[in-house]
Specification:
The complex is a heterodimer of chains A (about 160) and B (about 600). Chain A is an alpha+beta fold. Chain A has 7 helices and 4 strands; from the N terminus they run ααααβααβββα. Chain A has 2 domains: about 5-65; about 80-165, Glutaredoxin. In chain A, a hairpin with a 2-residue loop joins strand 3 (about 135) and strand 4 (about 140). With about 600 residues, chain B is an alpha/beta fold. Chain B is built from 23 helices and 17 strands. The chains are: A alpha+beta (about 160), B alpha/beta (about 600).
Chain lengths: ~160, ~600
């Protein structure tokens, strides 16, 4: 989960990471791992500060971040929505569900909502074709979903968040 | 407290496919030893799995660990007399369960606590380092490796001594040795098991390698997806430093060697030498043209040796027991053992280690226990996305580097996937190619564009839209990729396509010409139908159809509505009467 840090805390964290690796350009990947372990992703302002501290150009940092699959540039959502795109689900309307989700969450696949509540992913087959189309949120499976029903399901999660 | 049993007898009918006679034999055995059972001297267990297959009735006696195989009913009395009452072995029936497997690389895995250096030391750990540093010159070490005939286990099979010798002979103020632990093939986890189960053996191999080539610094490049391996290797490195086996002046020899871990970040291409070097330097993991080879110009332009985990784990044993001993295992050109991750449609999947030269059939049938569900083997895939398939009629080929290459596959890192008649070869080729296309770094055009186009053609074929000239196009693109790609990933990416085309061309042609997939994998090319003569109208298919494509009633019978069917195969799975037919896209009578 993404942490909310003040500017000072953030700088302190980056500095400790840079110190540990002596700010060496060859340790860039190791530093990025350490940062992502803390934040769950690599925020742009952290990259910027890292660049200032180490002298590695920001472009080079982004070159590396975007090359490797494991590094994220947006925070992971609190709840991961996985829409099954297996054959059965696909034909039973999974693409429409994805469209609906993209529309209401205003994000693309692989992204998270600005409030960090949801992250949208499509997966190959969840292995419960009898319930097609299937959507999984975190570890919970929802079967026979349709574009209206998905709204109700999401509402449960937003309500739960509001009540906190 | 009850006294413990003196002997435990495990009984298993290893021929059992359908009729399991284990219970029957256990009953007979128990009769003979009844008084001993009542006396709590002997306990008879009907074993679920002894890891032995196709050897008839197998009896294991604990604690002596005597194994008997192919035991007949009339032999039981003798076994009881001599091995249960007495402590002798009935030689004529004795059996060695691990006869097919030889553990060199995995010698310590599962035996020692990988987090305790003392346990490794107790099993002659670091004896090779001690021997090498106290009594051998770097040239001696390389000579010993040459004698052993060890070749790279990462896939290429380049002689390890030669690689070391190249780097040894280059003059440089600094040299490096790197352990390539960026194991990323789907279905392969040999390196992970060694790193998690016996990290010190790899570290020891690196120290020896560092000494031989004159490197004072080594790197472990481990993929970030292996957190436990990373943790254990780090702990092992820390312990080795504590014991003075790493760092300055190791064991008072004047040789210094430092080790550090570098993590990957989810890029398959980083398994390629030059890409791996770029990644350790903190850059994008893209390959560069070779030569110059890393042995001459590698990490930061310095001579660098990159060895695979399994290769390095072999090194300490070779130095301790001698290259001559090692070269007695294996075939003429491929020495030692190979670890395989045996998976797919095999009964006993898992990590195995066999001497080079073992045939594929022995591996699948004896070590792996045969194919699941008694189905027919279609092929065995080796080498992951860079390898190929070997059809059933060639399974008697002894496994070594040359043979596999001759058959159009490669040894690869050791993934071995067993396929049966349910697997569609076009679909398999597409699966592996998809992997390489996803993982292509995009630097060179043959791999980036060729892979994408090739995948498009295969998709077209599996969707039932293939045309005859597509097969010709596929061959051309494959050739271009093999010849013109920058690195191993692109050069070998077409291998699964080429080898499936070579051995299973008729399947491609069926897909293209007849729009048919014989294994029923390509959903667009099949239709499910109910064979009315076989149907007993139980209604299982009707209840289980996820899309309500089956209509009718128990009174009238059931029919599959083809326009609604999504070809999930659920009806086929649940039908107990074999009344669901997988046919080609068009009903037979409509075809010309």
């Amino acid at each position: 989960m993404a942490k909310q840090l003040t500017e000072d805390q953030l700088k302190e964290l980056v500095e400790s990471v840079v110190d540990r690796w002596g700010g060496r350009p060859d340790a860039l990947i190791m530093m990025l791992h350490a940062i992502q372990d803390e934040f769950g992703y690599i925020p742009r302002r952290v990259s910027l500060y890292l660049s200032q501290k180490t002298g590695i150009p920001l472009a080079q940092i982004y070159e590396v971040i975007t090359f490797y699959h494991l590094f994220r540039t947006s925070p992971p959502g609190k709840h991961k929505i996985s829409v099954c795109m297996g054959t059965a689900c696909y034909l039973k309307g999974a693409p429409q569900i994805v469209e609906k989700l993209k529309e209401i969450l205003e994000i693309k696949e692989g992204e998270s909502t600005p409030d960090g509540l949801f992250q949208l992913e499509t997966v190959r087959c969840l292995g419960c074709c009898g319930l097609a189309p299937v959507v999984m949120i975190d570890d919970k499976v929802y079967g026979k979903v349709n574009p209206e029903k998905i709204m109700d399901i999401l509402a449960q999660y937003t309500k739960e968040q509001d009540s906190k | 407290m009850l006294k413990p049993f003196e002997k435990i007898v495990f009984i298993k009918d290893t021929n059992a496919v359908k009729a399991d006679l284990t219970r029957h034999y256990a009953g007979i055995f128990s009769k003979y030893v009844r008084p001993l059972i009542e006396d709590r001297k002997v306990f008879v267990v009907q074993a679920a799995d002894l890891g032995i297959y196709g050897e008839g009735l197998v009896i294991k006696i604990w604690p002596n660990n005597i194994y008997y195989a192919n035991v007949k009913e009339e032999d039981i009395a003798e076994i009881v007399e001599r091995s249960i009452v007495g402590d002798e072995v009935v030689d004529r029936l004795a059996f060695s369960p691990d006869a097919k497997q030889v553990r060199v690389v995995l010698r310590n895995c599962g035996v020692i606590d990988p987090e305790e250096i003392d346990e490794y030391l107790a099993r002659d750990g670091y004896a090779a380092v001690e021997k090498v540093l106290s009594s051998m010159s770097p040239e001696d070490v390389i000579e010993e490796l040459k004698k052993s005939g060890l070749r790279g286990r990462g896939g290429g099979g380049f002689p390890t001594w030669m690689k070391w010798n190249f780097a040894r002979n280059v003059q440089s103020d600094q040299k490096y040795i790197i352990c390539n632990a960026d194991e990323g093939d789907p279905g392969a986890y040999m390196d992970r098991s060694v790193l998690e189960g016996d990290p010190h053996s790899v570290i020891e191999g690196m120290i020896v390698g560092g000494y031989a080539i004159g490197a004072s610094k080594g790197y472990f490049y481990i993929r970030a997806e292996y957190p436990l391996a990373i943790e254990r290797v780090q702990r092992a490195i820390d312990q080795a430093y504590e014991y003075g086996l790493l760092g300055e002046d190791i064991l008072g020899s004047g040789f210094s060697f430092d080790l550090e871990i570098r993590l990957g970040a989810g890029a398959f291409v980083c398994g390629e030498e030059t890409a791996l070097i770029a990644s350790i330097e903190g850059k994008r993991g893209t390959p560069r043209p070779r030569p110059p080879y890393p042995s001459i110009k590698g990490l930061w332009g310095k001579p660098t040796v990159i060895n695979n985990v399994e290769t390095l784990a072999n090194v300490p044993v070779i130095l301790s027991r001698g290259g001559d001993w090692f070269s007695t295992i294996g075939t003429e050109t491929s020495k030692g053992t190979k670890v395989f991750a045996l998976t797919g449609k095999v009964r006993n999947s898992g990590l195995i280690e066999v001497p080079m030269g073992t045939t594929l059939r022995e591996i699948v049938m004896k070590v792996g226990g045969g194919v699941v569900g008694g189905k027919k083997i279609k092929a065995v895939q080796t080498g992951g996305p860079s390898g190929g398939v070997i059809p059933e009629n060639l399974l008697d080929t002894p496994v070594d580097y040359e043979n596999l290459r001759r058959l159009g596959s490669i040894m690869g890192s050791g993934g071995m996937i067993v396929m049966n008649e349910e697997d569609c070869m076009v679909d398999i080729a597409k699966f592996y190619l998809k992997f390489c296309v996803d993982e292509s770094c995009g630097k060179c055009a043959p791999c980036r564009i060729g892979g994408y186009q090739l995948l498009g053609l295969l998709e077209k074929i599996t969707m039932g839209e293939g045309e005859e000239e597509d097969l010709e196009k596929i061959s051309l693109i494959c050739q271009a990729m093999q010849k013109a790609s920058l690195c191993g990933l692109g050069q070998t990416a077409p291998n699964p396509v080429i080898s499936t085309m070579r051995y299973f061309r008729e399947e491609y042609e069926e897909h293209v010409k007849e729009k048919m997939c014989r294994s029923g994998k390509c959903k667009r090319l099949i239709r499910y139908e109910i064979i009315q003569e076989k149907c007993v109208r139980c209604g299982m298919c009707y209840i289980n159809c996820p899309v309500e494509a089956i209509t009718g009633s128990k009174a009238k019978g059931f029919v599959i509505q083809q326009d609604k069917c999504v070809k999930c195969g659920k009806c086929y799975e649940v039908c107990k009467f074999g009344a669901i037919l997988i046919g080609s896209k068009e009903p037979v009578e409509h075809r010309i």
